[in-house]
Known about the structure:
By secondary structure, the chain is an all-alpha fold. It contains 6 helices and no strands. The protein is globular and about 35 Å long. 17% of the residues are buried.
Amino acid sequence: MQYGESPWMHPARPSASGRKPPFKYSEVLTAxxxxxxxxxxxNLALNHDYRSDSDSDKAQTFxxxxxxxxxxxxxxxxxxxxAVKSSVFLYVNRAYEAGLPDGxxxxxxxxxxxxxGYTEKEQDSVFDLLESFAATAKAVHSAG
Length: 144
């Protein structure tokens, strides 16, 4: 590799030497890539406002995506306390940013934790994290 080349460079752009990286962009993005939903559906996660649209197919798609994404993250983070904290924070932030009501936030999180296979004691710990992050997320996202 020469100076100025990066193994992470997009294949459509040649490197400084004119050579392409030894992988295809589609090989880098996998179903487990945390950014895949943003690549395939850029408006799905970030721009949904549940307060103004709670009954459409887009709302249901968003809720399904949020639940699936969170359950998968909790499952893969099992045993790693810091990673679980990050996943719970991300879920809570996404939920309140979208304007989900408290009851729905609780229902979805309960299903996610159950799908991830946590024991009852572990579920209690996750719900404690949820409550502590929820207060901050609600304050941040209701101020705007």
